[in-house]
């Protein structure tokens, strides 16, 4: 086993360990587990229900519950809040396993674009230290599936561009369809790829702006037959999305495919916005600075030694989050300057892929009037990590000592921030003063 593989494996094991550590704690339904875990159990008890999202999340959690039911569990981690007696691990373990691969997938994307191991290692490391993805992976929620499938769709597009095997493009279409079958905002991943394809094909007419030869592996898109793109990135996702509805429709024969989509659309149009709808609603532009994380669980206990607080906040690693936002703003300006001055460099393909996908997954939220939450930013935020990772890598390999020191300092700050806020991610016991030190006023 080479050093590179060993390092990536260590990061994966760390990611896996963090997600499975004490996974059974809080013998209750946390945040939206009251919907997803219950709905998943409904499939197993054959109880019809109306879902406000596409059904793939509940299928996956139901599979996890079914597998978990074959293993014994102590009464301390068992409850009947889903409608049946289930262990907390049974409805959480598959999310934890899926989320463990997030750093690996994002690192693989970085490698396929650049073929640089140093960049891949840094991206994998940063993704391992991201708190929001850790929290989302430890409970029976749906966002980790949406991002995982969407990023896998992107990864297989890149694999196809590098290796020209048609199976990769087909798998990409399947994963894109699966992402939309989690939530409709999974369409952002497809939109990003569509925009990239459109710009590459348009590049022949916009040579005064940029030449496709500067797009790295993305110039290979012009070599793909249009019919192949249409089949794999339009028909396959649509077919995948549609066929994934079949179990739900068979289970709920009172609704047709079209009727259930009308009901979902109407539901989200009538949710409303503001604190009167939910205390943790947050506007799309506030996500850039993580102004309003979400309290998923809070419990205060009195002991002989004083008050103990157990809190789980769906929040990112603050230092990593703010640096990632800074990198997006910086590279957006840098990208415009490159186009204006026609001075391309080896970073251009990364910036091109990162910014297009980031904007495709972020800007559409400006059109959404309903209450939105910080976790809706997860898709776009994934791509912003590619930006701060690029800055850190270039610092570390710089010939200037000050730049190398800056790269080390940034990695240390991100690591220390992750450790400092880890009790909030994992729900570890804190004293009131320890809790207050980790919370900004608008976070509580």
What does this structure look like?
The protein is mainly α. It has one domain. The protein has helices at residues 3-20, 33-45, 56-68, 93-100, 102-114, 117-128, 131-137, 143-163, 166-180, 187-202, 226-243, 246-251, 257-269, 318-341, 348-362, 378-396, 401-426, 432-437; strands at 78-79, 86-87, 294-303, 306-314, 429-430. It has a three-stranded antiparallel beta sheet with strand order 3-4-5. The protein has a two-stranded antiparallel sheet with strand order 1-2. α1 runs parallel beside α6 (117-128). The longest helix has 26 residues, at 401-426. It is globular.
Distance between the termini: 46 Å
Q: How many alpha or pi helices? A: 18
Find the structural class using helix and strand composition: mainly alpha
Helix and strand succession?
HHHEEHHHHHHHHHHEEHHHHEH
Helix content: 55-70%
Strand content: 5-15%
Summed up, the domain count is 1
Could you say which overall geometry the principal axes of the C-alpha atoms support?
A: globular
